[in-house]
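name: query_chain
kind: protein
chains: 1
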Amino acid sequence: MKGHETKMARMEDILNLPVQDPPFTEFSAAHITWVKVEGGRQGGDDIALIPFSRVDDFVKGESSNEECPASFRIESRRKRSEGSITKPRVDGYLEYTLYWCSYGPEDYRDCESGLGDGSNFKPSTGKGSRPGRRHMMRGCLCHFTVKRLYTRPLLALIIYNQRKHVDKTGAPCHGILDQDAVGTRAMYAPRISEELRQKVMSMLYVGISMDNIIQHHVEVVQGHGGPHNRDDFLTRNDVRNMERVIRNTSHELHIDDACSVKIWVQRHQKHVFYFQDASASEPFILGIQTDWQLQQMLRYGHNGSVASHSTFGSKKLKYPLSTLLVFDSSRNAIPVAWVITSTLAGQDIHKWVGSLAERIRTKDSRWRLNAFLVDDPSFGFPVIRDAFQCRVLLCVWHVRRAWIRNLLKKCCNVDVQQEMFKHLGWIVYSSRSVPNTMHAVEEFMEVFVDQSAFMDYFKSHWSPYIESWLSCIRSLPVAGPEPHAAIESYHRRLKYKLFNDQHASFWPRIDWLIHTLTTEFHSLYWLDQYTAETGYLSNLRDESFSTNAWYHALHIPDVDVILDEQNLHLAKVISQTDRNLAYTIWNPGSEFSLCDCRWSSLGNLCKHVIKVAMVCKNRQVARPLLAAQIYRQTLLSLLHNPPDDPVVLDHAILCATRLQQDIKGWEDLSSSGLLQQLPPEINSQIADSSLLLARPH
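structure:
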């Protein structure tokens, strides 16, 4: 374990040390420049400052030492409350944690042979031997202390008291450097890793038997040439212990739901990125993100997009659930964070979105998001832009799904369904060009006044909110239909898992929702990703949710799309299973297209609609993107009526330049399927406008 060291420093100078934040997901002592302390209680020890939020990453990195694999346990911990000390020392702490290698400090190597004298070293806390772990104790003295500084709570002072994995004689006591450990488990870490524990627990939660887990593990170990670390020695007893944990775990940690939630939060602090308990003036807010979800957000969100799935279960659950999703390489939506709040998630997003963004950047400062897709007009768009420094797009999947499913339910005539859905789409599109869009809404209600069942639904559910939706459409670019399918697939899976009638008695409890999400539901997505990456356990995947219409649309050849560019009322897609069958798509290229296939007739977005939208986009025969329409209108208005004030004119030129850069960014999003391609005249008009505005008048 060779880290960099510099000259000795006095403890009084520790706040002048640089804060080190290595650009790795996990890091060890070898990645840090250490300073020797001169004098004081820590005289001669190595010290360094790191962000407190990265302490767990350091502990994991230290446990992965190739020469001496280890597992550091918390030997002792102390905490202080803020304001409890009037004159804190420079190294005074809010939290003090002592980590010790699990192969020590006691030494029972000789005791098991009956040769020990019972005088082995005991830890400073006074703890004796730990039941069931005598075989692990080999006298290792490697340990370090972490102090969360009282005067600077965002920083952690690491004091490495003994960096080598040696016993009291100074000899290596485990790992490959210990000759006595060669050929035994002492060559490896004393416990299975958190990654393997997560894997086995997930397999148990999705219903895989212990025999199948062990058989799969043996295949994996044989596949990489035999045992290389502690994880490769997984035993039936390990799996049985985890089975016992699951069996004895209940969502109800307290008879009172609010108390139960608080207990869960205290026990799972590393999975909570924001918590605010309900009070007379403040709503309940709980933001959850597991380590695995964080990894997926880092992996698929970087230079990608995050989409919101908000206000789920507002009629059945005690508090609605909102989810943040990323899209993997197969265009499937993966939940990377859950937010449970007693109000609409968008109303309080300013409270938790900053904490989530900071959590991500703490792990990887280079992480960048291209776009954030919102599905609720109440979201604070400026707050999202500030937190993630990205574009914000409006995703109308919720509107489309609600309208089409109620049309199919409340209107029996197929031709009328098509016309009504097309007209609803026209209302959305006209929000860009019609001064008073509510006139278009009133016209729609007059034309189809005989469809009383749907009109009653539309008036009661959408009249109070339609203006806010249309106002949002006027101000934000709108995402294309491709991500709708992935979000819909997640929505169906969540509904299938939570709203089983056998769980109805638990719906009013928040602790049940938290437990189900973080165990069984979380494990379903872990299995999907594990199977996709390794090819193992593919027979256990639920194929009805493992892929979606967006993914299937990518596998339909362009030649199987029959599109008359002179008459865009209809399009046809040849079936991939029956070449004699062709599906008809009405109003092609729009977010409000309809298909006559069975999947679409159930109110879902089908692969045929998405494929036709892709072809229309590539051939640039669909109507311009909603966002492009409003930008063109704004720029042309600015061009025809240039301001006289030179300061205002300079500002207008700057805005035009920024718009041109935004359009370029949208082209990048379009290539990933998130936006429709922009007609070429949009870019040219913006460029011309910038030049014309720059000329002297």
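note: DSSP finds 22 helices and 18 strands in the chain.
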